[in-house]
Each structure stands twice: as C-alpha cells, then as structure tokens.
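ok new one. same drill as before - structure tokens go in, u give me an amino acid for every spot. 391 of them this time. try not to just spam alanines like last time pls lmao
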C-alpha cells in the first residue's frame, strides 16, 4: 500500500491517530504519511515499541529507530519524548524502556539521571540499583529521589495531618465541650428522652463533645514494610507517610523495613530520602521475624496501630506469623494489613495468607495513597476500616 498525505478535518485527524498507533508499513491499513513533528513523534514511539530490542526495520524506513545500549542515543530519546508527550505519558514510556530494553544500568550515569522525568517507579528502580551505584552518580540519584519525595509530601502531608488530627481529637471525649467541640450526633442520641413533640426538638441536658488532643503522645504507629522487589512503590509511599506521621507530636511513629532481616529506620524519619536509601529492595521475605520485632516494641497495646505493608508471600514460619497477629489483636493492638500502598491496580499477593488474616479479624487489602489517611483515621478511632478493596 502506498502512503498518501493525510486528509484534513475529523476523518484526517482520526487516520493520523491510528497511523501513530499502528506504526505504519503495509499492514496498518491507513495509507497515511507523516511529516514534521508527527514523523519525529512516530520515531520516538518506534524506538521503544517498534519491535524487539528497540525498533524494527520496515519498508520505507518506518519505525526503524532503536535505543540499543548507547547512552547518548537514550539521552536524546529522553529529551525527545519530553518534548512531544505530557509528563504522565513520559513516565510510562520511561518505565517501559527500562522494562523492555534493559536500560537500568544506564541510570547509573549522572547524565542519564538528569535527563529523566522523575516519578515513584523511577525511584524504585534507583533504589534497586543502590548497591551498584558509583559515587559519581549517588548525589544525582539522591537529588532525583528528593524531587519525587518533595512532590509527594506536598501532595499528601496536609490532608494526612488534618485527617489524623481530627481522629485523635475525636478519641478524646469531654463532657463540657465548647460550642464548636460538641459532637452533635452523640449528644442527640444521649438526649432523645428529652424530645419535645410540640416544639419538634430535643432539649440537651448533657452535652458530649470532642476533646482537643494535647501535645502528649496519644497513639503509637508502627509501619512494618516489606522491601522485596515487588513492593518498590509501596516502600516509597510508606516512607513519605512515615515522615509525615513522625512530624505529628501526638503520634509516636516507628518505621521498620524487612526482607529476611529486619532494619529499624525510625531514627532517620526526619528525612524520608535517608529512609529510602536505607532500604534494600529485593531478596526474600520473613514476615514472622519482622512482626516479632514490632511486637517487642509495643508498650501500650490499646493505643498502638501496626500497619503491615506486604504482598504476604511469606518465606518464614507461617503459623508463627499468624499467632503473632492474633496475639497482638488480643492485646488490643489495631492491626492493618495492606497488600500494596500504591496507585497501581490489584496487586499480586498470597491469597491463602490474606484469607487467614481475614479470619483473625485483620482483612488484607490494597490501598491507594489518597485513601491511606482515612484508613489510619479509622484504625486510630477503632472503627471499621474503609472498604478500599477486598482481600
């Protein structure tokens, strides 16, 4: 089929879009040619999606570009896609390039890191390369990670503090509240016997209100994070939330990461970048050992929330893990199991272990970062958790 210039109008735009999707050549059926900016955009797409190894040769030279293993060509390609596509699309294409073309090693070069569009997934990749990272790249990598962390903190911190402060306030009831502290739902329920039909109103003899949380520690939160490779995005978000929680004087926050060993990073919570570079993505998983450590740090069970963030693929002693969860719940600990803390879809997880936790009254579910404050507020107030996702 001979390519012909594109027609104008709605039909021409529709053909143009299909041509960019299908990649040209005799099989795409559009019969349309590209020029100028569209041709450059098509070349950028072809370098990544045109075929195995970064491009395929087609008649007429269509989609024959490739990234190969050349750092300069990759850097130019990164610049091109940032010019032609919005940031959200650039992040997806970068992720695909790393996965499809094995470009992880090139991220160890400072020039490459300066060219990429930073996002949560890129941070996860950098953390997985942490051990192999040369000193010449480390500072650049930290700068990239810090940009992402600061963006996440800006997005999540205010709402998290406001939501959890409200939950802490509601957990401290007072009997002589000021007007703006009155819990009207509980007050009305407590005074229904004083209903006056002729006035169609309730006369409250006893006011019930919310207390204002003092500056003393009201709750203790332990974030127990699986740092296996599949949990990279969850580790990033959990570290940011850990830093936000640690900034609240009424919550004592502990952050623990684990694979087959356990590392307590609580003393680094003032800087989530330090926390992230203290993790070691990959390796095995021993949830039982991690929970044993967390359990040993609980001093006020009734005022403690333990959040296990893991896909539940346990390499340790399964029955002991479940016994520890049961013991913590029996002591009054609020136990939350998150299969993922990320923006992704339904995660892969061990369904047998999730069902076993649910049977103990600790349902396991995935949670998006936007919903995490609501989950924590419910745990602090000891009310049913939001229906985020089923186990």
């Amino acid at each position: 089929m001979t390519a012909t210039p594109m027609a104008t109008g709605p039909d021409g735009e529709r053909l143009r879009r299909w041509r960019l999707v299908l990649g040209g050549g005799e099989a795409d059926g559009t019969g349309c040619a590209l020029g100028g900016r569209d041709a450059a955009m098509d070349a950028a797409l072809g370098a990544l999606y045109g075929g195995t190894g970064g491009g395929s040769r087609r008649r007429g030279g269509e989609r024959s570009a490739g990234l190969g293993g050349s750092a300069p060509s990759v850097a130019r390609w990164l610049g091109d896609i940032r010019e032609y596509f919005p940031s959200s699309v650039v992040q997806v294409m970068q992720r695909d390039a790393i996965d499809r073309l094995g470009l992880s090693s090139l991220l160890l070069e400072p020039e490459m890191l300066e060219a990429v569009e930073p996002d949560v997934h890129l941070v996860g990749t950098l953390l997985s390369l942490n051990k192999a990272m040369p000193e010449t790249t480390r500072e650049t990598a930290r700068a990239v990670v810090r940009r992402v962390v600061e963006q996440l903190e800006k997005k999540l911190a205010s709402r998290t503090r406001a939501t959890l402060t409200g939950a802490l306030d509601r957990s401290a009831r007072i009997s002589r509240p000021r007007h703006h502290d009155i819990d009207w739902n509980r007050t009305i329920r407590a005074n229904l016997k004083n209903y006056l039909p002729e006035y169609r109103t309730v006369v409250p003899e006893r006011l019930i209100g919310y207390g204002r949380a003092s500056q003393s520690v009201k709750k203790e939160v332990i974030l127990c994070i699986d740092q296996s490779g599949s949990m990279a995005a969850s580790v990033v978000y959990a570290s940011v939330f850990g830093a936000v929680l640690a900034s609240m004087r009424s919550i004592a926050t502990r952050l623990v990461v684990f694979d087959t060993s356990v590392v307590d990073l609580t003393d680094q919570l003032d800087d989530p970048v330090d926390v992230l570079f203290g993790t070691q993505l990959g390796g095995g998983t021993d949830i039982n050992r991690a929970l044993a450590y967390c359990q040993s740090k609980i001093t006020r069970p009734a005022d403690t929330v333990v959040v296990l963030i893991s896909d539940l693929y346990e390499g340790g002693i399964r029955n002991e893990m479940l016994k520890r969860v049961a013991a913590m719940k029996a002591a009054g600990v609020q136990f939350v199991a998150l299969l993922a803390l990320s923006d992704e879809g339904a995660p892969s997880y061990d369904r047998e272990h999730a069902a076993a936790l649910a049977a103990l009254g600790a349902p396991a579910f995935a949670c998006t970062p936007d919903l995490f404050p609501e989950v924590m507020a419910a745990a602090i107030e000891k009310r049913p958790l939001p229906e985020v996702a089923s186990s």
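The first helix runs from residue 9 to 22. and btw The longest strand covers residues 219-226.
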